[in-house]
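User: Predict the complex with S-adenosylmethionine.
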Amino acid sequence: MIKLEDTYKHKGQRKALVKLLREKGIQSEAVLEAINTLPRHFFFDSALASHAYEDKAFPIGEGQTISQPYTVAFQTELLNVKPGDKVLEIGTGSGYQGSILHLLGAEVHSIEYQAKLFERTKKFLGKLGIPLKFYFGDGSQGIPQQAPFDKIIVTAGAPIVPTSLLNQLKIGGILVIPVGDRKTQKMLKLTKQSATKIIKEEFNNFAFVPLLGKEGWV
Ligand code: SAM
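Assistant: Here is the predicted structure with S-adenosylmethionine placed in the model:
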């Protein structure tokens, strides 16, 4: 990780990134402000830090990636986070997406399946003073002991919508999840209207690393 220094140059690069995200169709001022506030270069390895404000996904080790800023913005906008929402994030990764949710006022529970990433990100966000609640394990099963959640966001590509996640959503809650094959997935927004009624909306294609685990890719 790089020295945690946020300069005028970085702030300028963030402003340009926010402008680009706006041009690409992101409308939520709260989401854009969170991206404008959070130094994405803090979440990068020093060798790649100069690329932190490009609208691209980058490797974070262990074969995983920090999602493209547009993807983070798109998923977060669909999630419609309100201050105080209890949000479950599947796939902690670098901690960037979870930190954006925290800046929006959510109580964030984040679960990661890769032991090394889990340890590293938990330690790093502790140092940054970002108080996510971290869990290690198979997020395709959710976190039953912490359910129900107002919102659930899955940041890895799933083969199906895991029933466990729908079960752990409050009535009125929202699940945002990319579903498809191992290479490309359609972004889905599922709103739980009642215990038996789910409204499904489909959006563009994205390319995520696979969601592993019992209700993911084995
Ligand atoms: N949200 C992350 C960020 O802001 O950097 C990016 C996530 S990365 C695209 C996908 C993450 O999902 C990886 O860290 C991967 O290890 C994790 N993952 C895959 N399957 C998982 C599972 N069943 N439970 C929890 N995490 C999982």
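Residues 109 and 133 are 5 Å apart (CA to CA).
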